[in-house]
Amino acid sequence: MTRVIPPDAFDEAVQALRRGQLVVFPTDTVYGVAALAENAEAVTRIYAAKNRPRHMAIPVMVAEPDRATDVARPLPGFWALAEAFWPGPLTIILPKTEALSPIVAAGGDTVALRIPDHPLALALLRAVDRPLAVTSANLSGQPPTLTAEEARDQLEGRVAIIVDGGRAPGGQPSTILDLTSEPLKILRPGPITWPQIAEALKMTR
Q: How does strand 23-26 pair with strand 161-163?
């Protein structure tokens, strides 16, 4: 049974995540379903809940740029990009560390990191104080969800808690920048453009 809770009860969501359960909450793009990134069993539940193919890696969200080093190895330019665009719609791909469960990276050697620009998502990340594996709260192949009701329609009984933070802003997905490639490569265009990225990296390239 999935419980829908108001934002002021999100301590329940924090405890659920720490117990290895799945929690849904709004981000600055869509509603996301989350588990502790360090908990391989919990991350496995995300794949099962969404019917997500196991070869598709799951992005990781952190509360502060410094927490990126919990799961990733910063490369030249990372700190400048984080300062310029986080929190916000830029996902940065970095080499993963051994601390990150291989299942999050789908067996690969990189991880996609972001800090969402949404007050409830940030509050939850800070309260949990751990990197979270987060992907869109919908069944694979179905439309992303923008409200708690839409998320419950798709994931009822598959997640423990949905935090109802109102309608997610939605709109354009984040820009994905692969910082491991040479030259640097945008894998998915989004709100952050290449000229903006180049400007932020001017002092580090």
A: parallel
Using one digit for the tens of pLDDT, what is the confidence trace for 107-137? 999 999 999 999 999 999 999 999 999 999 9
Closest-CA residue to 94 (of 75, 76, 81, 107): 75
Residue 49 DSSP symbol: H
pLDDT band at 205 (very low <50, low <70, confident <90, very high): very low
Q: Write down all domains in the chain, each with its CATH number in brackets.
A: 3-75+101-171 (3.90.870.10)
**Mean model confidence pLDDT for the chain:** 94
Could you identify the residue written with the tokens 């196991």?
Answer: 54
Are 146 and 44 in contact by the 8 Å Cβ rule? The answer is: no
CB-CB contact of 113 with 64 (8 Å): no
According to the 3-state scheme, what is the secondary structure of 57-119? CCCEECCCHHHHHHCECCCCCHHHHHHHHCCCCEEEEEEECCCCCCCCCCCCCEEEEECCCCH
Supply the pLDDT for residue 38: 93
